[in-house]
Please model this.
Amino acid sequence: MKNMNFLHSYHPDPIIFSIGPLQFYWYGFFVSLAIVLGIVVAQKLGKKYEIPKQQILDLAVYVIVFGFIGARIYDVFLEFPYYLKHPLDIFKVWKGGLAIHGGLIGGALAGYYFVKKNKLNFWLTADIVAVAIALGQAIGRWGNYFNQELYGLPTNLPWGIPIDFLHRPLYLYQNANYFHPTFLYESILNFCNFLFLLFLHKKRLLKKQSKVLALGNIFLVYLANYALIRFVLEFIKIDTTPILFGMRFPQLFSLLLFIFVVLGLRYKITKAKN
Model:
């Protein structure tokens, strides 16, 4: 418990250091670290499936660029009233504002184009990329911490984090001292997802004819796990987002994604066994 005290008292600064007019941000650092380590993991895993490292790197460029664009577009949609008043802020990505659901959509479309162009197996590629994405998410969420964004409801728990008034919802929770570190919850859960996906790959490589772990199933497990993680954590998040049918939009999207993926996974496994 004492090891969490630094979260309780530390006020993060989004800037690591400055050199003249240039400023280096923690958000950019963690996003870059997530990308590099994600690529390394994907290359090592791809090697076990006899996929060349360069091909994984080329794929990463497609997925990262279009995933980044998709993540930004999705975030702008979620906070459209704000960006309508501050259109230039759309381009200030170093201040945060990347929605993973949009990143998954953009990255998936780019990945599909790449694998078809290079005649790769789409589902095997997706299984490999899923592991890298889960690790990247676990690392990247720490950028949100330094930007003081994506935190949760007020809490008195020892690991609650202080949030400056500037970053709190207008006229809400002004008397609260500490908030749920949802970035930390999601980081831990994403890392667990990463380890579980690696375990599934190991099982598949040992049992190459496993019907339960047929190509594409590991990717679907990733989607189901992440959708569940987001659905649960959205109950305590307080950032601005559209409300539909009494639910936060990312939560509703995650619920629908979870149901769709689980049904698809069940269908694939049942079909493989018959």
